[in-house]
């Protein structure tokens, strides 16, 4: 359910998210946020304490529910009691992003633009949240993939999980290459998921490569 924006805190968060997504974190001032949200600076300080804390709250507002949904999906898979396929695990990881835009397409686009900031100026805030919000999710999915892909050495699986996460984040955050190729529908998260799941699944299932001879 989309959060109501009738509280000062939610209004500040929604406004900051929109401005960060459109113009970046560093160039968006608290004055701009408070003006558009129709609040004063004291309200920002009361609810968040600082711009840095507000930035983290904006990311946590999206990443928290996203990662909880990923854990719920994985729990449901594992409760079946049968062997879980690699494709099912990948879909459990990818689908919550699609669910975001199915509730509100505008929210999905804003989130994608916001996520793109994590690769540049907002990386430090994202990495803080990664340790707090993301680490347990990645470890759970790695463990599930280790059971589904027992033939892979632990270090090789680590690299493939890294590639999986990177592919998902990049695909939803940056569609510049699709636009270069003439695809104007780059912000279609459902299409992105349909393309991502078999692509990532194939990469995870790829034959193990031999260790280099030293």
What does this structure look like?
By secondary structure, the chain is mainly α. The chain has a domain at 58-205: Orthogonal Bundle (Tetracycline Repressor, domain 2). The chain is built from 10 helices and no strands. The chain has helices spanning 8-23, 30-37, 41-47, 51-78, 86-103, 105-116, 123-148, 154-173, 176-180, 189-205. Helix 1 (8-23) packs across helix 2, helix 4 crosses helix 5 and helix 8 runs antiparallel to helix 10 (189-205). The protein is elongated, with a radius of gyration of 19 Å. The model has no long low-confidence stretch (mean pLDDT 82).
Mean pLDDT: 82
Number of helices: 10
Task: Determine Rg (CA atoms, Å).
Answer: 19 Å
Q: Give the topology string: H per helix, E per strand.
A: HHHHHHHHHH
Q: Give the percentage of residues in beta strands.
A: under 5%
CATH class of the domain at 58-205: Mainly Alpha
Query: What is the 3D shape?
Result: elongated
Taking the sheet with the most strands, its summary is: none
Task: Tell me the structural class.
Answer: mainly alpha
What name is given to the CATH topology of the domain at 58-205? Tetracycline Repressor, domain 2
Helical content class: over 70%
Number of strands: 0
CATH architecture of the domain at 58-205: Orthogonal Bundle
Question: Distance between the terminal alpha carbons, to the nearest Å?
Answer: 56 Å
Contiguous low-pLDDT stretches (5 residues minimum) are none
């Amino acid at each position: 359910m989309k959060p109501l924006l009738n509280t000062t805190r939610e209004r500040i968060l929604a406004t900051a998210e929109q401005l960060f997504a459109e113009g970046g974190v560093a160039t968006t001032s608290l004055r701009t946020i408070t003006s558009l949200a129709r609040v004063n600076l004291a309200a920002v300080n009361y609810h968040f304490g600082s711009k840095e804390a507000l930035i983290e709250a904006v990311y946590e507002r999206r990443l928290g529910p996203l990662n909880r949904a990923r854990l719920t999906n994985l729990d449901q898979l594992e409760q079946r009691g049968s062997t879980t396929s690699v494709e099912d695990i990948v879909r459990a990881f990818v689908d919550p992003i699609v669910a975001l835009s199915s509730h509100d397409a505008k929210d999905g686009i804003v989130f994608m633009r916001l996520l793109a900031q994590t690769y540049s100026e907002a990386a430090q805030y994202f990495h803080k949240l990664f340790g707090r919000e993301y680490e347990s999710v990645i470890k759970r999915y790695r463990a599930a993939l280790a059971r589904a892909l027992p033939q892979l050495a632990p270090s090789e699986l680590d690299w493939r999980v890294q590639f999986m996460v990177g592919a998902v984040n990049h695909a939803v955050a940056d569609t510049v290459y699709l636009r270069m190729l003439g695809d104007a529908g780059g912000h279609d998260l459902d299409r992105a998921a349909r393309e991502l799941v078999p692509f990532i699944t194939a990469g995870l299932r790829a034959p193990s490569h031999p260790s280099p001879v030293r």
